[in-house]
Amino acid sequence: MKLATIRWGDSTAAGIVGEWDIDLLDARDVREVLEVGLDRVDSLSTGQTVAIENADFAPLVIEPSATWCVGLNYAGHAEETGVPLPDHPTVFSKMAAALIGAHDDIVMPPAEVSEQLDWETELVVVIGQACRYVDPVAAQDAIAGYTVGNDISVRDWQLRTTQWLLGKTLEDSSPVGPWMVTRDEFGALEGKAITCEVDGSLVQASDLGDLHFKPPQLVSAISQMITLQPGDLIFTGTPSGVALSREGTPWLKAGSVVRTHIDGIGDLVNSCTRV
Fold first, then answer.
1. 208 and which of 61, 70, 163, 189 could share a cystine (Cβ 3.0–4.6 Å)?
2. How far is CA 94 from CA 87, 97, 234, in A?
C-alpha cells in the first residue's frame, strides 16, 4: 500500500495511492491514518479521488510529534567527512516547520545568513505504532513503511558549533514524500538504489543495503530515550557525494533543481528559491 498527504481545498487529506489516482481518506494526513491503523484504512474512505498528476503533495506527515535524523550512517559519507563510523547512532532532530512537500520549493535564506546549502538524499522511516524500550526485533514491527527525504543542510551553521540542530532545520527546506510505501510492500533494503541529482547531474548514488545502522536498530536506539509515536519520521542518513566534500564546494543556488530518488518509492523534485 502507498499512502500520501495532499493539499485539498483549504486543508489537507490523506489518500491511498493507486496506479493513476489517489483515493481520499477521512484523515488530515498519514499520521492520522496510522493512528487509526493500517488494517482499518478502508473505513476511512470518502469515495473521492484525485488524479496523481493533479495532486499537490504536502509533507507526508504535517506535524509529526518528532522528526529524528541520523548522521554518518554510510561508510562512504563518514570517510568523505573524515570521521570514523560511530559505535552508536549519531542522532539529531528537525522541526516540523522544516518539512515541505515532494514538489515544493526549497526556500533558501538571505545570502547574508548563509550561502552554504547542501543536499543529503535519505531513506525515511515512518513509525506506525507507539514503541518504547524495544529491541531491534520488536522495532521492526513498529515501522509502518518508508518514504524519501532530503536533509537539506546549512553547513556553516551546522559546523559552527558541536550541535548540528540549527544547520539541519532551516524552515521550508526539507522535502519528504511523495508517499509512504508500507514495509511489507517495500521489502528488503538491499539492492535498492538511493540517488540525488542536482540540475541533472548525478551527485549521490548508493544502495540502501549499505546503511551502517539499519532501520530497526535506529528505532530501537531512539526508543530507549523516548516513546516513538505513529507518524514520527526518522531520516536514516546520507551516502557520500555531498557538496561539502566536493572540489569547490558547489553549494545549491537559487534556481537549482534537486531530484531525490529511492527505488521502490519514487522521486522528490524541488527547485531552490531565495527569500
1. 189
2. 22, 8, 10
Q: Span 191-210, mean pLDDT? A: 97
227 and 145 share a domain?
yes
pLDDT at 216: 98
193 to 121, 148, 239, 265, 272: CA distances (angstroms): 11, 12, 11, 10, 24
pLDDT (0 to 100) of residue 54? 97
97 band by pLDDT with thresholds 50, 70 and 90: very high
Q: In terms of domains, do 35 and 150 share one?
A: no
Domain count, the chain: 2
> Contact 14/2 with Cβ under 8 angstroms?
no
pTM of the entire predicted model: 0.96
**Which residues touch 126 (CB under 8 Å, ≥6 apart)?**
30, 34, 60, 61, 143, 144, 145, 146, 147, 180, 231, 232, 233
Q: Are 196 and 258 within 8 A, CB to CB?
A: yes
CB 45 within 8 A of CB 27: no
**Residue 275 reports pLDDT greater than 90:** no
Residues of the domain holding 25: 2-54
90: in domain: yes
Rg of the Cα atoms in the chain: 18
Q: Could you read off the pLDDT of 61-85 as tens digits, one per residue?
A: 999 999 999 998 988 888 887 888 8
Co-location of 167 and 221 in the same domain: yes
Are the CB atoms for 263 and 128 separated by under 8 Å? no
**Plot region of 12 (φ>0 → left; ψ -120 to 50 → alpha; else → beta):** beta
Within-domain flag for 59: no
Give the lowest-confidence range in 82-91, 214-223, 240-249. 82-91
**Cα dist from 264 to 177, 189, 194, 227, whole Å:** 13, 10, 10, 29
